[in-house]
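Re: the 312-residue chain
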Amino acid sequence: MILLVSHRGDPHLGPVLAGLLRRRQRTAILDTGRFPTLGRLDLRLGGAGLERLRVAAGPGTFEAREIAAVWWWRPLPCEPDRRMPLASHREVARLETAAALGGLLRCTRALWVNEPAAAREAEHKVWQLRLARECGLAVPRTCVTGLPAQARAFLREVAPGRAVFKALDVRPETWRETRLVGPEERSLLPLLRHAPVLFQEHVPGVDLRVTCVGRRLFAAEIDARHTSSPHDYRLALGQARVRPARLPAEVRRGLRTLLSRLGLRYGAVDLRRSADGEHLFLEVNPAGQFHFVEQRTGQPIGEALCDLLASG
């Protein structure tokens, strides 16, 4: 059985579920955002009896030993019963449920896409950049600092108008776009004493989104240079030109090595191709969206993901 740990509000769940059903794969959906309100788990270990690891998720019940592959895709936090009167009690219930469920699922011998601990570790942008260099990939000049003087020195080094700043920790509630450093941002540099910021050399060129599924790489060119948001295509995706792209052999090799070093079987990589053809690594998202790339390019990313899960 293939376990899909996600939620029905995610646009990727439906196509992946349909692809697995076409392959006649037995599947189950575990919506952690409705657990344990609409689900239960039961684990028995030790003693003379056989171990039992069982999850009831919605209408179905399954044993952990039945799971051949787990698709861990943007799960929501566990949601305790809102009728519990105290917020502190609800938080304890949420944490205990998450710990029990995570421990039970780790008792499987399944193929994980991706293993949660590896995905969390891989989200650290500084670590990604360092490891990308070790894997033979080029990266833009980067400075992460909480010292205003060091930030000013870096901005002088990369020349005026040639630096961007971006968030180190990206989540829905704190999402911020990548922006150029201008006069207003320079006036705020003393505030770095409160929290460090990632500054990076801005390299003019075309964005590439490379969706890595196992050993397969699907590269798409996203040209946002003539849109309302040339520095962050995510804000002008509808205006950008998106089409399939080719990667040099050394870049493909470096990306596969990087994903392996990070312990990821899936990753959405952002690159920037400069005017002289150099490919610079920007970041990798262990749960980066692929649906928009598939729609705009026709690349069979979802089918590749289903093949990977079915191989588990």
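The mean pLDDT is 90.
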